[in-house]
Specification:
This protein has helices spanning 2-41, 57-110, 116-140, 153-164, 185-201, 257-267, and strands at 149-152, 172-176, 180-183, 208-215, 219-226, 271-276, 281-288. The strands form two sheets. Strands 2-4-5-7-6 form a five-stranded mixed beta sheet, with helices on one face. A two-stranded antiparallel sheet has the order 1-3. It is built from six helices and seven strands, in the order H-H-H-E-H-E-E-H-E-E-H-E-E. Helix content is 54%, strand content 15%.
């Protein structure tokens, strides 16, 4: 009888040890998952997982994740260095262009010839183009600081439209849905504003634009849809390219608004895509949502 009791005690102790080890492994796995999620949401700016010095399946997984995150950091650093070189080159070229443009503006203001108004319009267009190009290149090089906080995505979109509404008083813009998202409200507002501006430019004077915000398990979707007829299917993949203009583009913009919107969304670790809807173009912004429980 005593031997049976001793055996039960040993088995009980072994079970407790196994349970403790299982709980420890569960906590470790949750910490690893949380760190990996935070690392991805920070755009590779955080620290990678430390290298595990123990043995076991979780240690091998941890070391594999650590190696992958380190590679991401190195790749991101190389990309930033290359982007910074491109941004500096663009800034140098733009600076050199500003000087003759300033001189041309002065001469046009002094010389009120028959083409003075048209000349000033072209100069102002060139100045807007230079500013937009500098902004795009600096965004591509991660040259701006983003301040992330939880905000109402619909409110951000409505504020963006309020700034544009005076330019298109006849447009009908409808907002539906709601969701909170981690974002830099000013920058996200600029991206949505560019999408709204593009929609207004490609619809009739009394055209209709719909802005829809939806929340899914892992993402918030913000959709801007117009009734302007859409674009040819072969142009969809090119809409976010620098200086690309659709066939029916009115020609008043810089051709950089959608490219800037894409870079802003990229800085939010999201995606942006365009597709033809029933009556026009639909552009969808997808922003990630952090759902992991903190332990």
């Amino acid at each position: 009888m005593g031997g049976l009791i001793a055996l039960c005690a040993v088995l009980g102790a072994a079970c407790l040890v196994l349970i403790a080890l299982r709980l420890r492994d569960d906590r470790r796995a949750r910490r690893m998952a949380r760190q990996a999620e935070d690392f991805s949401l920070e755009g590779g700016e955080g620290k990678p997982l430390p290298v595990a010095t123990d043995e076991g399946p979780l240690a091998r997984v941890q070391n594999a994740v650590s190696d992958l995150e380190t590679r991401v950091l190195l790749s991101e650093e190389r990309r930033r260095e290359e982007s910074l070189r491109c941004a500096n080159l663009t800034a140098d070229i733009s600076h050199q262009l500003k000087t003759p443009l300033s001189a041309l503006r002065l001469y046009c203001e002094m010389d009120q010839g028959p083409h003075a108004v048209a000349e000033m319009e072209q100069i102002e267009r060139m100045e807007r183009l230079i500013r937009a190009l500098l902004r795009l290149e600096k965004l591509s090089a991660d040259g701006y600081e983003f301040r992330f906080a939880e905000r109402d995505a619909r409110a951000v979109a409505e504020e963006a439209w309020q700034a544009l509404a005076p330019s298109w008083p006849e447009k009908r813009v409808e907002f539906t849905g709601e969701a909170r998202v981690r974002c830099d409200a000013a920058w996200l507002g600029e991206a949505v504003g560019n999408l709204l501006k593009n929609a207004c430019e490609h619809t009739a004077p009394a055209g209709r634009v719909r802005v829809c915000v939806e929340r899914a398990d892992s993402a918030v979707f913000l959709t801007v849809e117009d009734d302007g007829g859409g674009v040819p299917p072969e142009e969809l993949n090119r809409l976010f390219e620098r200086f690309y203009r659709a066939a029916d583009d009115p020609g008043g913009g810089s051709g950089l608004g959608l490219a800037i919107a894409r870079e802003i969304v990229r800085r939010h670790h999201g995606t942006i895509q365009a597709e033809n809807a029933a009556r026009g173009l639909r552009v969808t912004v997808s922003l990630p949502v952090l759902n992991l429980a903190k332990t």
